[in-house]
Amino acid sequence: MKRHMIVVLLLTCIGGLMAQSERTIEKSFKAVSKIRIKTVSGDVEVIKSSNDKINVTVRYEVEPEGAFEARFDDNGRDLRLSEHWSGRSSRGYVRWTVEVPQNTEIRFSTASGDFAADGLEMELDASTASGDIELTGCKGKFNASTASGEIDIDDVAGEMDLSTASGNIEVNGGNGELEASTASGSIRIDDSKGSFDCSAASGDIDANDLTFEDIADFSVASGDVKVKLSAPLKHDIELTTASGSVTLDFNGQTIKGYFELTAREDRGRIRAPFDFDKEDTFERYDKQYIRKSISISGSEPRIILSTATGRASILR
Q: Is this prediction's pTM over 0.85?
């Protein structure tokens, strides 16, 4: 019992020291149209302001003391928030909370910090090296890129330009223009509508319950592409891959339009719930390809599926 009490007292003391070592900076500024935020490793959360001012809270715990400095530069036109670190052995965490009025433009860059925005109408340009980017319940224009981090989009409307090197991209409840690209990551899209231009090098694209309001293009090099509809297809769509498979699932929607499916003759496969009325072969990169096509209830929209060594499939 005595040993247990000693452990509890030690943990309580340590917890108290840790709580006391966290420091807080709070500042308030008049609203400006643009905020530039540049961090080294600090995480940033941007939320809606309740008083039409820009309110900034910085919480940090850094060793050694004095290794971190939060900097604020307000020139009346834009507000600049940044981190300054000194010493090679400094360590700890920094968390920024930035409250902004609606329709504020945010420019954010970091090395390893994360970025999150919630419930804002905004224009965003965010880039990270290894940090993650998360947007929830936002409207506006968004340009987000990361090297090895993840991008997570939930209930966002507007123009979205998203890119990663090795990180994944996830979009749920998107509405608007979506352009997403990744090198070795994967792209997943659920319950979204608008226009789509998505590409991956060695990753997969998995898109479910989509409503297309414009031409759509999904392409990968060595991965798979799967697209499932949630509404009748009224616009052209193209699904392409080299060594993977492509699948367009109509999910019970009316099958109509011009269909053209292509695969390598010796290693690829073409599958559809209907018979094609035209078939031909052609040569590409010294390999023979087979192409099958048909028009069902008219020639629009155009549905193009292409693969080399995988399957090109239409599902009813």
A: yes
